[in-house]
Amino acid sequence: MKKGLFITFEGPDGSGKTTVSTAVTERLQKEGYRVRYTREPGGSEIAEKIRNIILDPENTAMDARTEALLYAAARRQHLVEKVLPALEEGITVISDRFIDSSLAYQGCGREIGIQEVYELNLFAVEGRMPDKTVFLDIDAETGLERIAKGRTYLDRLDQESIDFHERVFAGYQKVIEMYRDRMIVLDASLPVEEVTEAAYQAVRALLDE
Ligand code: TYD
Known about the structure:
Radius of gyration: 16 Å
Bound molecules: thymidine-5'-diphosphate
Oligomer: single chain
Low-confidence stretches: none
C-alpha cells in the first residue's frame, strides 16, 4: 500500500498555525481524503503527560537541555505511537509542530545551538524528517501582538521574554534556509481565511500528486 505523507505545520507563536492546520485537515477529510491531525508536544497519552511537565508555569527551574530532552522524548513517543502507524496505513498525517520547533525554540530561543538540538533529535526520530512543511511566516512584532491580544492562559513558553521570542523568529528563518526544498512558506500576516485557503491549496496539491 502507498504510504501516507508526513506533513508538518510550523511557525512562531501567533502565526495562526493551529487554527489553519485544523481547518485544512477538516476540509480535506470532508472531501474524502485520508488525513489525520495531530499535535506536538503531546498527541498521545504518554506524550501529553510529558507536555504537561514542559509547559507547567510552575517549572521555572527547568534547565534548557532538560527542556530539549523532554520535547525530544515527547516527539519520539508520539512518532512511534501515532505518526508511523498512520503513515503505514496510507493515512496522511498533518502534525502541528515537529522537529523544526525544537531547532527554533531550543536551538535558537534557548541558545543551545541548532546543530546540537538537531543531533539530539536525530536519536528521537531516527532520521524520519517530514515530507513537506507548511511554514506560516510572520514577523516578530505582528506575531507577538497577536499573542498579547488573543490569550488568557499563558503557558511557561508563552511567558518568556520578548528577546526569547525574537530569537525564535530568527531561528525559524535559519531553519527555512536550511530546508528550502521541504518548506512551503506562506505569508501568515494575511487574514486567517486567506492563509487557510493558501495552506489548503498547497496540501491538496501534494495529496493529488
Ligand atoms: P503549542 O501547543 O503548539 O502552543 P501554541 O498553540 O502556543 O503554538 O506548543 C507549546 C509551546 O511549546 C510553544 O510555545 C512552542 C513550544 N515548543 C518548543 O519550544 N519546542 C518544541 O519542540 C515544540 C514541539 C514546541
